[in-house]
Amino acid sequence: xNTTGKRPKSFYFLTAFFALFILFLYGPTxxxxxxxxxxxxGGLTFPMNGVSLHWYxxxxxxxxxxxxxxxxxxxxxxxxxxxxTTMVISLSAGMAFRKKFRGSGLLFYLTVxxxxxxxILVSLGIGLLFNQAGVEPxxxxxxxxxxxxxxxxxxxxxxxxVFNRFDKSFEAAATDMCATRFQTLRFVVIPLILPSLVxxxxxxxxxxxxEFARTIMTSGSQNTLPLEIFxxxxxVTTPVLYALGTLTTLISFAAIVGTLATLSLxxxxxxxxxxx
Length: 276
Known about the structure:
Elements: H1 9-35, H2 54-58, H3 62-65, H4 68-96, H5 104-112, H6 119-132, H7 142-164, H8 169-176, H9 181-209, H10 225-235, H11 240-275
Helix pairs in contact: 1-11, 4-7, 4-9, 4-10, 6-7, 7-9, 8-9, 9-11
InterPro entries: Bact_Polyamine_Transport (IPR051789), MetI-like (IPR000515), MetI-like_sf (IPR035906)
Subcellular location: Cell membrane
Membrane topology: Multi-pass membrane protein
């Protein structure tokens, strides 16, 4: 803001540009959400033919649109399992890498390289490995492993950054007070890094929940939600597909809002502890 109290022209230009970006980002999602409320005789395009929740009720009719309930349940369970595993392994690896050990550099690069390999090749390789071993690929087995190759590198990078700036004097103080290693981890280390650990969990959940490429050849005969949606795009010609997209978007936003609320509570708790 200049000395005359007027905003510079660049401010309005950047504001307009940002507004256009938000419209470009969420416009298609908003359009799908509106069209999902078509009437029973409505189609996939405007103008809308009535307003109703008809297609949301149709969503749960297995014979009409496939196994939506089952695929949603599988995706949620898989995402939760990947989230918990990613948090545990990332925390353990982050603490292990605080000290140099033989092969640590090679192990780090082998972990991160999975981000570079095309996801479809990872899916193909894991699927072939299970087939060669005589084990049928499943969403809770091979797909679980495939998703970890995607979520763990992000979790590890976050934990490495967190522990790189972690003040070890807190642990030293706990040791001076005769705290065991487990007590130091539980009452000192984890509370201090908990917001970052929650962020790792959010990464793990969201990356697994909507992962398609690493699932397509590892889920076996039972689809996860992204695979079910892909199948619906080839044989569903009603707004029920829009209802599914809107519902899954709301689930994603609910996960994000829940995480932000958790982080806010943790921040308030830490502030109360420091004030006390």
